[in-house]
Design a protein that fits this description.
The protein is of the alpha+beta class and 313 residues long. Helix content is 29%, strand content 27%.
Amino acid sequence: MDNPEQNYPLDANLRIDGEVIRRLREEQGLTQLYVAKVVGVTSDTISRWENNRYPSIKTANAQRLAEALEVEVDVIVQHPADEATEDVRDFSPPARFTRVKMVLWGAGIVVVVTALMLGWRLLSAPNPDVWAERLLPSYAAPGAEVPVKLTFTGSAARVVVREQIPTGWELVAAHPEPDSFDPASGLMRWIMEVGQESVSIHYLTRVAEKAPLHSLQKFSGELVLRSEVPGHGRTRMVGANQLVVEQVHWADLNADNRIDDDEMLDASYLAESAGSLSLGMEKLEKLWMAEHYYWDPDVNEFIGVEPEFSVDK
């Protein structure tokens, strides 16, 4: 494209092209699960986007999706009919090595890269390999409670988990409870054992009531492992690290102010894995049964709206 990438408002609904998204993902050899983890949604949501079951999504989700596919947002957004659609669909960023292209460059490059990685591992201290990821909703309303899930897997190790919520947010509850928490900075820390079987931390955090609408709120986190080499004992979280403050329920993946059946299923899976941590499923079920919902700032709750009966006047 000759023009630079457009700046889309954070609260805008963008119409995405599912066929382009699927093609880009397959060209790079990415799974739906991997893309879902980077974006911070479920793999079912990625499937629905690719099949145009959710043809419109908020800008924040589109930005995360574009980052996961290593392209600009304009590439996955449908353009007006008067533009050359085929040019958009056939566009792929030049001179960028996707996984498939790297393979096509020959086994020699793979051998060199593998040798460098093995050499680095041999020269460094024997550190355990641990994978840490964060599952985070895309939206949250000022004053609302939001669930966050941290998942860890890898070789057996004792680690310190450091997780920091945005400034001004509150920690409502956590399972397991953190070993330390600083309300002023929002820093939580856990000491835990990690192994090949994945383990998770769930926590509820309350958005600051004065958080401005349409603003991006960022999370940060890492694992600290014992290491004899400086800088080699820290592993950063992957997955979602920010959300947008909107008057949208955390379970409303496409931000249409409705909780549909697929979204309710996703929320129920998260609630089951959260153990004793309450995610307010009773209230969520009422929103699911309603025609739509809205955020009431006076009571800091989402209110379901029942269908109106038409009356002839």
